[in-house]
Design goal:
Helix content: 25-40%
Structural class: alpha/beta
Length: 499
């Protein structure tokens, strides 16, 4: 594509060198992926600076270089007068607007539903995806569990765990449009908002689940975390807001001056959608949903009472997208449980293994409370410290789980650059001594899953919390393939003769 940089809407050029018009065949921020005709963006990362890789990008065939270092780009422009160089104030912002332009603004052809919150993002976004597809609105999904089209996952390596960088995001949008999808449900994290990965996107519906302390290794303060999340509601056309969340609901309501629905578990809340009288069973959830002064009985094959709130939020998104409540209710019995979110796996001798990748103290406490509502003998729970997260959170994971299971297996997820033992020790500091339950430690998630299964017996429940990102464990910068489900199958297959 022949592109004159100054014609790209909202593209913030401060200075330009070389040819004003460039032939651009692709957009990259990773110099190892540069191919001839590429536009290379010198993105500033947490651990590196894209400006350091300009020579590598040029050697790979880049025709256009966009960065923020005026002196460095001036020097390169003198050496490479046939290449285009542009100095911008914010490389990430420039990347977002060029990506939208390069892929012909595919976002304009999609109903875009964004979900943000400390807990429940993946579940709620997946419920939106599932609900829209059941309603005949072909939808894609972008989030922690991968990239999905209507018929399932598509292979796509995400450089970030949840919300892709903008060039990847618009590439995915373009594929959805090409495949005739009409909507996309996606998780939008606070870090993605702060890093302008969704800059320039006007979401049709933004959903708020909740907020509690998280990602302080990045944001440093809770207020910065909250303000980053609020950015989503300043670039949306409609919103679904959790009235029961004291941490952020009030702040959102102050900035939304467009159509919105509130939801709550409290009958006296005056919320637009109220879910109440929730009951759990081995067949799923039953609850009453109040909307427009009518009460609708709901029965869905989903587990975890807090998921009634997540489902209600998804229903709100469908309502704001123009779907009638009667149409929504008709398809709810066909909803599917979310991968890795209160996912129940039946084991031999009436064991139940629950995969729920709760990775915050609040989420862990909630899921432990919910699993106990299922019939069981003993409860064995795996908890983890996450090596790529704030160490101050790790003892809180132990405090959230203490005394709530018969056996706790403590391990590390995504140790990153840390020794696993250091992460495990940080978690253990949260327990009172002597321990209120048996505690087992394991220095890898694989070992921990096997240890938890080994501890189980007939009629026991095994909860595997925290978990994989993109089907992997992050160890010293590398993504090591990992699957709890594969380990579970392997374990019970090897024990078949014993049962």
């Amino acid at each position: 594509m022949d592109i004159q940089l100054c014609t790209i809407p909202s593209f913030p050029i401060l200075m330009q060198f070389g040819p004003e018009k460039s032939t651009i065949s692709s957009i990259e921020y990773n110099s190892t992926l540069v191919t001839p005709g590429c536009a290379f963006f010198c993105v500033l990362g947490e651990h590196t600076d894209g400006h350091l890789y300009i020579n590598e990008a040029i050697a790979g065939g880049a025709t256009t270089i966009i960065g923020s270092d005026k002196l460095l780009l001036t020097e390169h422009a003198k050496k490479q007068p046939n290449l285009s160089f542009a100095v911008v104030a914010d490389v990430r912002m420039a990347l977002a607007y060029m990506s939208d332009f390069f892929y012909h603004s595919p976002q304009e052809d999609l109903i875009k539903v964004a979900v943000t919150g400390t807990n429940g993002k993946t579940t709620t976004a997946t419920y939106v995806y599932d609900l829209f597809n059941l309603l005949g609105i072909s939808s894609g999904f972008i989030g922690t569990t991968g990239i999905l089209r209507t018929d399932g996952k598509i292979p796509f390596f995400k450089s970030t765990p949840t919300t892709p960088i903008s060039s990847d995001l618009h590439k995915i949008f373009a594929r959805f449009v090409l495949e005739k999808d009409r909507a996309v449900a996606m998780e939008v994290t606070s870090i993605a908002l702060d890093q302008k990965r969704v800059e320039g996107i006007r979401f049709d519906v933004a959903i708020h689940t909740n907020i509690s302390e998280e990602h302080l290794e990045y944001h440093k303060t809770f207020d910065h975390y909250l303000q980053s999340k609020l950015m989503l509601f300043k670039q949306s056309k409609a919103a679904v807001i959790n009235m029961d969340d004291e941490g952020m609901a009030k702040e959102i309501l102050e900035v939304v001056h467009y159509p919105h629905l509130t939801y709550s578990n409290q009958m006296d809340s005056s919320a637009d959608l109220i879910w109440t009288a929730c009951e759990s069973s081995d067949t799923g959830l039953k609850f009453d949903l109040y909307y427009e002064e009518e009460c609708w009985p709901i029965h869905v094959p989903l587990f975890g009472e807090y998921n009634a709130a997540n489902l209600t939020a998804a229903i709100g998104a469908a309502l704001l997208s123009g779907v009638r409540i009667e149409e929504i209710l008709a398809v709810l019995p066909k909803m599917s449980q979310v991968e890795g979110r209160f996912q129940v796996i039946q084991g031999p001798e009436n064991r139940k293994i629950i995969l729920d990748y709760a990775h915050t103290p609040v989420a862990l406490s909630a899921v432990l409370q919910e699993v106990k509502k299922l019939s069981h003998n003993r409860l064995i729970a795996l908890i983890a410290g996450i090596g790529i997260r704030d160490f101050s959170k790790m003892p809180k994971m132990a405090k959230a789980a203490e005394g709530k299971a018969d056996v706790l297996v403590v391990t590390v997820d995504h140790p990153g650059s840390h020794e696993p033992s250091l992460v495990i020790d940080a978690v253990l500091k949260g327990f009172t001594v002597p321990y209120k339950q048996r505690v087992v430690t394991a220095e890898s998630r694989r070992e921990a899953v096997l240890a938890a299964l080994q501890e189980s017996g007939p009629d026991d429940l095994v909860l595997l919390s925290s978990g994989s990102i993109n089907g992997a464990q992050i160890v010293k910068g590398k993504y090591i393939p990992h699957s709890d489900e594969a380990i579970i199958e392997e374990f019970f297959s090897s024990k078949t003769s014993d049962f």
